[in-house]
Design goal:
Protein name: CopG family transcriptional regulator
Shape: elongated
Largest sheet: 3 strands, parallel
Radius of gyration: 20 Å
Strand content: 15-25%
Pfam families: RHH_8
Number of domains: 2
Low-confidence stretches: 1-7
Number of strands: 3
Strand order of the largest sheet: 1-2-3
InterPro entries: Arc_rbn_hlx_hlx, RHH_8, Ribbon_hlx_hlx
Mean pLDDT: 90
Distance between the termini: 46 Å
Length: 138
């Protein structure tokens, strides 16, 4: 009897964003890249973002505690939702990072058990589940 292979979940290393910069700002970045301070534009932008996050680290920590936000990766499985449903609970999910709703979660189960979903970062969920929760996602 052959065993079924299971592909482990792997969170994406990066998320692509788009920004608009003025010509002068872009020129200054190009100058710093050309002079070897940064390997490329992306390196400069990532460094600038990390510096700003570090600068506001205490504020971010206070907000996370005050708003009861989970930090990191939150996986929501079918079993998690069935357990909540059996207990008559509705979940209010708040995450700074990544939320992954399992592929076997049905739209009805999600609507019956998730009262709110706030993701500061990335949400990975089946399209039908995302559509079912559209009015609850902030």
């Amino acid at each position: 009897m052959a065993k079924a292979s299971v592909t482990p979940f792997r969170a994406p290393d990066t998320e692509k964003i788009t920004i608009n910069l003025g010509c002068v700002d872009l020129g200054q970045i190009e100058l710093l890249v050309r002079e070897g301070f940064y390997s490329n534009r992306s390196d400069f932008i990532r460094t600038a973002i990390r510096n700003q996050i570090d600068r506001h680290a205490d504020t971010v920590r206070q907000i996370i505690v005050r708003q009861s936000v989970d930090l990191g990766i939150r996986r929501i499985t079918r079993d998690d939702l069935i357990t909540a449903q059996a207990a008559g609970e509705m979940l209010e999910i708040r995450v700074l990072g990544l939320v992954v709703i399992a592929a076997d979660v049905t739209p009805d189960l999600a609507r019956d058990t998730i009262s709110g979903l706030s993701v500061l970062g990335t949400l990975q969920a089946p399209d039908p589940v995302r559509a079912a929760l559209a009015d609850r996602i902030t």
